[in-house]
Amino acid sequence: MVFVCSARGKAKVANLDKPGSKASPRFSEEMIQDCLLIMQSGEVDELFEIIPRLGVLRDLRFQNPLKSLLQDKDTKKREFAAYAMGAMGNREFLEPLRQAFGDACSMKGFGVEEFQIAVIEAIGAIGDDAAVEFFLPILKDVDSVRDARKIRKWIVESLGAIAQQGGSRSLEALFELTAHHEAELRAQALSELSVAFWHRPNEVDESILERMHELTHDSDAVVAEAALGALQSLADVGCRRAERLFSGEDTL
Predict the structure, then answer these.
(1) Number of other residues whose CB lies within 10 A of the CB of residue 44
(2) What's the confidence (pLDDT) of residue 224?
(3) Count: domains in the chain
(4) Residue 124 and residue 206 in one domain
(5) Is residue 136 part of a domain?
(6) Which one of 59, 77, 181, 237 is least enclosed by Cβ atoms within 10 Å?
(7) pLDDT tens digit string along 87-110?
(8) What is the pLDDT, as a whole number, of residue 136?
(9) Are residue 135 and residue 205 in the same domain, yes or no?
(10) Looking at 125, 150, 172, which one is the last position of a domain?
(11) Of 75, 114, 76, 119, which Cα lies nearest the Cα of 95?
(12) Nearest to 175 by CA among 142, 204, 218
Protein backbone atom coordinates (compact mmCIF):
# COMPACT_ATOMS: atom_id res chain seq x y z
CA MET A 1 0.00 0.00 0.00
CA VAL A 2 1.32 3.49 -0.87
CA PHE A 3 0.84 6.37 1.54
CA VAL A 4 0.85 10.00 0.44
CA CYS A 5 2.26 12.69 2.69
CA SER A 6 1.44 16.36 2.41
CA ALA A 7 4.21 18.58 0.99
CA ARG A 8 4.90 19.96 4.46
CA GLY A 9 5.01 16.47 5.93
CA LYS A 10 7.35 15.24 3.18
CA ALA A 11 9.76 18.09 3.80
CA LYS A 12 9.82 17.37 7.51
CA VAL A 13 10.37 13.66 7.05
CA ALA A 14 13.08 14.24 4.42
CA ASN A 15 14.96 16.51 6.82
CA LEU A 16 14.59 14.18 9.76
CA ASP A 17 15.57 11.07 7.82
CA LYS A 18 18.85 12.40 6.43
CA PRO A 19 22.01 10.85 7.91
CA GLY A 20 23.49 13.31 10.36
CA SER A 21 20.37 15.43 10.22
CA LYS A 22 20.58 18.47 12.47
CA ALA A 23 16.84 18.76 12.98
CA SER A 24 16.41 20.35 16.38
CA PRO A 25 14.75 18.49 19.28
CA ARG A 26 12.09 21.23 19.24
CA PHE A 27 11.38 20.57 15.56
CA SER A 28 11.08 16.84 16.23
CA GLU A 29 8.84 17.47 19.22
CA GLU A 30 6.54 19.60 17.07
CA MET A 31 6.20 16.70 14.63
CA ILE A 32 5.52 14.27 17.46
CA GLN A 33 2.80 16.50 18.88
CA ASP A 34 1.26 16.92 15.40
CA CYS A 35 1.10 13.15 15.01
CA LEU A 36 -0.41 12.67 18.46
CA LEU A 37 -3.10 15.26 17.72
CA ILE A 38 -3.98 13.61 14.42
CA MET A 39 -4.25 10.20 16.09
CA GLN A 40 -6.48 11.74 18.73
CA SER A 41 -8.74 13.41 16.15
CA GLY A 42 -9.11 10.15 14.25
CA GLU A 43 -9.58 11.70 10.79
CA VAL A 44 -8.92 8.71 8.53
CA ASP A 45 -7.32 10.58 5.61
CA GLU A 46 -4.94 12.41 7.93
CA LEU A 47 -4.10 9.21 9.80
CA PHE A 48 -2.77 7.48 6.71
CA GLU A 49 -0.76 10.57 5.74
CA ILE A 50 1.30 10.46 8.96
CA ILE A 51 2.46 6.83 8.62
CA PRO A 52 5.83 7.81 7.06
CA ARG A 53 6.42 10.29 9.89
CA LEU A 54 5.61 7.70 12.53
CA GLY A 55 8.09 5.34 10.90
CA VAL A 56 10.85 7.94 11.12
CA LEU A 57 10.10 9.38 14.56
CA ARG A 58 9.28 6.08 16.35
CA ASP A 59 8.46 7.89 19.56
CA LEU A 60 7.31 5.73 22.49
CA ARG A 61 4.34 8.07 23.02
CA PHE A 62 2.80 6.70 19.83
CA GLN A 63 2.41 3.20 21.26
CA ASN A 64 -0.73 3.61 23.38
CA PRO A 65 -2.72 5.61 20.79
CA LEU A 66 -1.86 3.02 18.16
CA LYS A 67 -2.89 0.14 20.41
CA SER A 68 -6.21 1.89 21.06
CA LEU A 69 -6.80 2.53 17.36
CA LEU A 70 -6.03 -1.12 16.61
CA GLN A 71 -9.17 -1.96 18.62
CA ASP A 72 -11.34 0.83 17.22
CA LYS A 73 -14.82 0.09 15.87
CA ASP A 74 -13.84 1.72 12.58
CA THR A 75 -12.06 -0.92 10.48
CA LYS A 76 -10.17 1.72 8.52
CA LYS A 77 -8.66 3.13 11.72
CA ARG A 78 -7.62 -0.38 12.72
CA GLU A 79 -6.00 -0.80 9.31
CA PHE A 80 -4.08 2.45 9.82
CA ALA A 81 -2.88 1.32 13.26
CA ALA A 82 -1.57 -1.96 11.84
CA TYR A 83 0.37 -0.28 9.04
CA ALA A 84 1.71 2.35 11.47
CA MET A 85 2.92 -0.37 13.84
CA GLY A 86 4.71 -2.05 10.96
CA ALA A 87 6.32 1.26 9.97
CA MET A 88 7.59 1.78 13.52
CA GLY A 89 9.01 -1.74 13.66
CA ASN A 90 8.67 -2.15 17.43
CA ARG A 91 8.55 -5.81 18.51
CA GLU A 92 6.22 -4.85 21.37
CA PHE A 93 3.49 -4.53 18.74
CA LEU A 94 3.65 -8.20 17.79
CA GLU A 95 1.25 -9.46 20.45
CA PRO A 96 -1.44 -6.79 19.80
CA LEU A 97 -1.14 -7.54 16.08
CA ARG A 98 -1.54 -11.28 16.66
CA GLN A 99 -4.65 -10.64 18.71
CA ALA A 100 -5.94 -8.29 16.02
CA PHE A 101 -5.49 -10.99 13.40
CA GLY A 102 -7.56 -13.38 15.49
CA ASP A 103 -10.29 -10.74 15.73
CA ALA A 104 -10.12 -10.06 11.99
CA CYS A 105 -10.73 -13.71 11.13
CA SER A 106 -14.17 -13.50 12.74
CA MET A 107 -15.05 -10.06 11.41
CA LYS A 108 -17.39 -9.38 8.53
CA GLY A 109 -18.12 -6.37 6.37
CA PHE A 110 -16.42 -3.72 4.30
CA GLY A 111 -12.70 -3.27 4.85
CA VAL A 112 -12.04 -6.54 6.71
CA GLU A 113 -9.82 -8.00 4.00
CA GLU A 114 -7.72 -4.82 3.87
CA PHE A 115 -7.36 -4.95 7.65
CA GLN A 116 -6.20 -8.58 7.51
CA ILE A 117 -3.59 -7.69 4.89
CA ALA A 118 -2.41 -4.74 6.99
CA VAL A 119 -1.92 -6.93 10.08
CA ILE A 120 -0.02 -9.63 8.20
CA GLU A 121 2.17 -7.07 6.39
CA ALA A 122 2.87 -5.28 9.67
CA ILE A 123 4.05 -8.49 11.32
CA GLY A 124 6.33 -9.10 8.35
CA ALA A 125 7.63 -5.52 8.41
CA ILE A 126 8.56 -5.78 12.09
CA GLY A 127 10.77 -8.65 11.00
CA ASP A 128 10.73 -10.81 14.13
CA ASP A 129 11.53 -14.41 13.21
CA ALA A 130 9.34 -15.55 16.11
CA ALA A 131 6.33 -14.61 13.96
CA VAL A 132 6.88 -17.89 12.09
CA GLU A 133 5.42 -19.84 15.00
CA PHE A 134 2.29 -17.72 14.69
CA PHE A 135 2.04 -18.03 10.91
CA LEU A 136 2.74 -21.74 10.41
CA PRO A 137 -0.44 -23.11 12.07
CA ILE A 138 -2.53 -20.77 9.90
CA LEU A 139 -0.75 -21.96 6.78
CA LYS A 140 -1.37 -25.59 7.68
CA ASP A 141 -4.99 -25.27 8.82
CA VAL A 142 -7.00 -24.44 5.71
CA ASP A 143 -10.48 -24.98 7.09
CA SER A 144 -10.41 -22.91 10.26
CA VAL A 145 -9.77 -19.54 8.62
CA ARG A 146 -12.09 -17.73 6.22
CA ASP A 147 -10.46 -16.79 2.90
CA ALA A 148 -7.59 -19.11 3.81
CA ARG A 149 -6.12 -19.15 0.31
CA LYS A 150 -5.68 -15.38 0.20
CA ILE A 151 -4.46 -15.22 3.77
CA ARG A 152 -1.84 -17.88 3.17
CA LYS A 153 -0.58 -15.96 0.13
CA TRP A 154 -0.16 -12.82 2.25
CA ILE A 155 1.54 -14.83 4.99
CA VAL A 156 4.09 -16.31 2.59
CA GLU A 157 4.87 -12.77 1.41
CA SER A 158 5.43 -11.72 5.03
CA LEU A 159 7.69 -14.72 5.61
CA GLY A 160 9.66 -13.52 2.62
CA ALA A 161 9.95 -10.05 4.14
CA ILE A 162 11.26 -11.51 7.40
CA ALA A 163 13.66 -13.80 5.51
CA GLN A 164 15.08 -10.77 3.68
CA GLN A 165 15.93 -9.31 7.08
CA GLY A 166 17.90 -12.44 8.00
CA GLY A 167 15.19 -14.54 9.64
CA SER A 168 16.56 -18.07 9.59
CA ARG A 169 13.32 -19.68 10.78
CA SER A 170 11.42 -17.89 8.03
CA LEU A 171 13.87 -19.26 5.49
CA GLU A 172 13.29 -22.75 6.86
CA ALA A 173 9.53 -22.26 6.65
CA LEU A 174 9.75 -21.11 3.03
CA PHE A 175 11.98 -24.08 2.21
CA GLU A 176 9.43 -26.43 3.79
CA LEU A 177 6.67 -24.81 1.76
CA THR A 178 8.45 -25.72 -1.48
CA ALA A 179 7.27 -29.27 -0.72
CA HIS A 180 3.66 -28.24 0.01
CA HIS A 181 0.92 -30.23 -1.71
CA GLU A 182 -0.55 -27.04 -3.22
CA ALA A 183 1.28 -25.97 -6.36
CA GLU A 184 0.46 -22.30 -5.82
CA LEU A 185 2.19 -22.24 -2.43
CA ARG A 186 5.20 -24.16 -3.76
CA ALA A 187 5.58 -21.61 -6.54
CA GLN A 188 5.21 -18.62 -4.22
CA ALA A 189 7.69 -20.03 -1.70
CA LEU A 190 10.26 -20.44 -4.48
CA SER A 191 9.84 -16.82 -5.54
CA GLU A 192 10.12 -15.53 -1.97
CA LEU A 193 13.26 -17.60 -1.37
CA SER A 194 15.00 -16.02 -4.33
CA VAL A 195 14.02 -12.49 -3.26
CA ALA A 196 15.31 -13.17 0.27
CA PHE A 197 18.86 -13.44 -1.14
CA TRP A 198 18.87 -10.56 -3.61
CA HIS A 199 21.21 -8.54 -1.40
CA ARG A 200 23.46 -11.55 -0.58
CA PRO A 201 23.25 -13.80 -3.65
CA ASN A 202 26.28 -15.92 -2.91
CA GLU A 203 25.10 -16.84 0.57
CA VAL A 204 22.29 -19.05 -0.72
CA ASP A 205 22.49 -22.48 0.87
CA GLU A 206 23.20 -25.35 -1.51
CA SER A 207 20.06 -27.16 -0.36
CA ILE A 208 17.93 -24.22 -1.52
CA LEU A 209 19.57 -24.14 -4.94
CA GLU A 210 19.21 -27.89 -5.24
CA ARG A 211 15.50 -27.66 -4.42
CA MET A 212 15.03 -24.91 -6.99
CA HIS A 213 16.81 -26.97 -9.64
CA GLU A 214 14.82 -30.06 -8.72
CA LEU A 215 11.53 -28.20 -9.04
CA THR A 216 12.34 -26.95 -12.53
CA HIS A 217 11.17 -30.46 -13.45
CA ASP A 218 8.00 -30.33 -11.31
CA SER A 219 4.92 -31.90 -12.89
CA ASP A 220 3.04 -28.63 -12.39
CA ALA A 221 4.03 -26.04 -14.99
CA VAL A 222 3.44 -23.11 -12.59
CA VAL A 223 5.93 -24.55 -10.09
CA ALA A 224 8.48 -25.43 -12.78
CA GLU A 225 8.31 -21.88 -14.16
CA ALA A 226 8.62 -20.40 -10.67
CA ALA A 227 11.69 -22.53 -9.96
CA LEU A 228 13.30 -21.49 -13.23
CA GLY A 229 12.43 -17.87 -12.51
CA ALA A 230 13.94 -18.13 -9.01
CA LEU A 231 17.24 -19.45 -10.41
CA GLN A 232 17.29 -16.76 -13.09
CA SER A 233 16.55 -14.06 -10.51
CA LEU A 234 19.47 -15.17 -8.34
CA ALA A 235 21.73 -15.50 -11.37
CA ASP A 236 20.85 -11.95 -12.41
CA VAL A 237 21.99 -10.55 -9.05
CA GLY A 238 25.29 -12.44 -9.12
CA CYS A 239 24.76 -15.92 -7.67
CA ARG A 240 27.35 -17.88 -9.62
CA ARG A 241 25.99 -21.36 -8.83
CA ALA A 242 22.45 -20.30 -9.76
CA GLU A 243 23.79 -18.93 -13.06
CA ARG A 244 25.45 -22.24 -13.88
CA LEU A 245 22.32 -24.21 -12.94
CA PHE A 246 20.09 -21.90 -14.94
CA SER A 247 22.29 -22.12 -18.02
CA GLY A 248 22.63 -25.89 -17.70
CA GLU A 249 26.40 -25.70 -17.22
CA ASP A 250 26.13 -27.27 -13.75
CA THR A 251 24.25 -30.42 -12.81
CA LEU A 252 23.40 -31.94 -9.45
Answers:
(1) 12
(2) 97
(3) 2
(4) no
(5) yes
(6) 181
(7) 999 999 999 999 999 888 888 888
(8) 87
(9) no
(10) 172
(11) 119
(12) 204
Residue 73 has pLDDT above 50, yes or no: yes
Write out pLDDT tens, residues 131-144: 898 898 888 765 55
Q: Is residue 193 part of a domain?
A: yes
- Contact between 21 and 47 under an 8 Å Cβ cutoff? The reply is no
**Measured at the alpha carbon of residue 225, what is the angle toward residues 224 and 228, in degrees to the nearest 5?**
90
Phi, psi at residue 23, to the nearest 5°? -55, 130
Within 8 A by CB and 6+ apart from 148, the residues are 138, 141, 142
Q: Cα separations (Å) of 198 from 201, 206, 236?
A: 5, 16, 9
CA distance 44 to 246: 48
Nearest to 101 by CA among 142, 131, 128: 131
Q: How confident is the model at residue 3 (pLDDT cuts 50, 70, 90)?
A: very low
| Contact in structure between 138 and 152 (CB atoms under 8 Å) | yes
Query: What's residue 134's pLDDT?
Result: 86
Q: How far apart are CA 130 and CA 128, in angstroms?
A: 5
CA 45 to chain centre: 23
The pLDDT of residue 110 is: 87
Query: Residue 24: inside a domain, yes or no?
Result: no
Distance CA 139, CA 233 (A): 26
Give me the domain span that covers residue 99.
70-172
* Same domain assignment for residues 190 and 236: yes
